[in-house]
Design goal:
This protein has one domain: Nucleotidyltransferase, domain 5, CATH 3.30.420. It is built from four helices and five strands; from the N terminus they run E-E-E-H-E-H-E-H-H. It is of the alpha/beta class. Strands 3-2-1-4-5 form a five-stranded mixed beta sheet, sandwiched between helices.
């Protein structure tokens, strides 16, 4: 299994998550700032340090499944990633991941992190990457249908 780097692209921060050959998505430090060249340079450092083979980026579709302004921003960013790194890039529907990440963080602690910390962005990237990994490898989650023959 390749190493994956999950990305939650944002205008202020880029949340990141990593999964190695074990297939467990874990949040890592977000990239602050929005300047394209410096964010790509920082992302390149992360790719080198983590030896990531593929990128998994959240694709912000509208609730009705159509693509809007935010999806076009991600499309433009993906073009830059392809030019710069030349590794496979997978887009994953990210509807409601930031909301889900926020709810998960609220449930796990008494106080929410500040928005500037990037923790919420990386938590969203973790959910994006986890969704991708679960969809890609159905053996990570057992299918209840597999157990019907053992019922008494």
């Amino acid at each position: 299994m390749p190493n994956y780097l999950g990305i939650d692209y944002g205008r202020k921060r880029i949340g990141l998550a990593f999964a190695d050959e074990l297939g467990v998505a874990m949040p890592i430090s977000a990239i602050p700032g929005v300047e394209l060249e410096s964010s790509l340079e920082e992302l390149g450092n992360v790719l080198d340090n983590r030896q990531a083979d593929e990128l998994v980026i959240g694709y912000p579709l509208n609730m009705d499944g159509t693509s809007g302004t935010r999806a076009r921003e991600v499309d433009a960013y993906v073009v830059e990633l392809e030019k710069r790194f030349g590794i496979p890039i997978r887009k994953v529907d990210e509807r409601l991941t930031t909301h889900a990440a926020s709810e998960d963080l609220k449930a796990s602690r008494k106080r929410m992190p500040g928005k500037e910390s990037g923790e919420l962005d990386s938590a969203a990237a973790t959910l994006i990457l986890r969704d991708f990994l679960e969809e890609r490898n159905p053996f990570l989650l057992p299918d209840p249908e597999d157990f019907t023959e053992f019922e008494s």
